[in-house]
Amino acid sequence: MKQSSEFLKDAIEMLGEENDSKAAARLKIAKSTLSLYLSGTRIMDDFACVMVAEALGIDAMKVIAAAQMEREKNQERREVWENLRKKIGALGLAGWVAGAALLLHPDLARADGIHGVVTQHFDKIAIYIMSNDDDTPDGGKNCLLVQVCAA
Q: Which of 26, 55, 71 is the last residue of a domain?
């Protein structure tokens, strides 16, 4: 799983700033603090996580959960953050898949006029995303169901 400092490095690259001072200013954090985050001496606080997520265009909870997981000393609590990260990832994937299903479903996407693109009509599209990680507290039985139904 990606560490919070990796999200930070990606954000700095995405911003395209030529030096850390300008990147820090864009992220609204002190340059010295940015240096501590990049070196791994400190773990980003929630504000920095939100600013990094905004720069990357991703859900802030992805970065916050990564930082909290790194910060947590208690293994049981760390696993809670790890499981949250897995669920956030699954929800993101489900959103992309559901969006693609909406685009491809002719009734939902209003694409009836496009011939040859969609050859089959569906009454319902169901997408199951399941964990196969037996190390999860529920033995890998996490399941997320996304259903897209025709109007």
A: 71
Residue with the larger pLDDT of the pair 123 and 61: 61
Helix, strand, coil shares, percent, the chain, to 5: 55, 10, 35
CB–CB of 15/29 below 8 Å?
Answer: no
Q: What is the predicted pLDDT for the residue at 86?
A: 84
Same domain, 118 and 53: no
Residue 69 in 3-state DSSP? Answer: helix
- Length, in residues, of the chain: 151
Its pTM surpasses 0.70:
no
Q: Inter-axis angle of helices 4-15 and 31-39, to 10 degrees?
A: 130
The residues with which 143 forms a beta bridge, in sequence order, are 130
**Rounded average pLDDT over 65-80:** 90
